[in-house]
Specification:
This protein is mostly helical. It has helices at about 1-15, 30-35, 55-65, 65-70, 95-105, 110-120, 125-130, 140-145; strands spanning about 155-160, 165-170. About 40% of the residues lie in helices and about 10% in strands. It has a two-stranded antiparallel ribbon.
């Protein structure tokens, strides 16, 4: 049930970190990903906002608190983009592929190795060219941080126009 899921998330993250606001509605980053998987919209869904004041390392660490939800049958989705430089969309296409290759490698480690690598994304080849701001990459940190100690898996790699994008799973 939705209320129970909200309370479980709040208990895991800490009441001081959770502000409930049902008036906002779902962002396109949530419903745009979930709707094709669950077109009947027959599952409870909780959307969490990113903390603009928190670093990637802090997002990774906070997400670890959500890991028990996986074992309780909750799907944790981090729906950002591996490339999000709309101002210079085509200009940095080669950098998007370099960054994507780096992410593919970075997610191959155990939980701690992934966290160490992903927290330093801005130093990666093509990192800043692919993400002038990190808010569309932080969902990857949350999904990875909530993942197990198994290596991440590439589940899709493709292109939008000349740029590389992809998706990973963390069992």
């Amino acid at each position: 049930d939705l209320d129970q899921l909200v309370e479980r998330v709040a208990a895991l993250l800490g009441e001081d970190r959770v502000k409930r606001d049902a008036s906002w509605g779902f962002d396109h980053g949530s419903w745009g990903v979930i709707l094709p998987m669950y077109p009947a919209a027959d599952i409870p869904m909780v959307q969490l906002s990113l903390d603009r004041t928190a670093s990637p390392a802090e997002h990774l660490a906070r997400a670890a608190a959500l890991a028990p939800l996986r074992d309780e049958g909750v799907l944790i989705v981090g729906s950002g983009m591996s490339y999000h430089n709309l101002r210079h969309f085509a200009d940095y296409a080669p950098e998007s592929y370099a960054f994507h290759d780096w992410i593919d490698q970075a997610v191959q480690g155990d939980w701690q190795a992934r966290c160490d690598q992903l927290a330093q994304w801005h130093s990666a080849p093509g990192g800043r060219a692919s993400h002038p701001r990190e808010e569309h990459l932080l969902p990857l940190m949350v999904a990875s941080g909530a993942g197990s100690d198994l290596p991440g898996r590439v589940i899709w790699r493709g292109a939008i126009g000349p740029t590389c994008i992809g998706a990973w799973a963390f069992d």
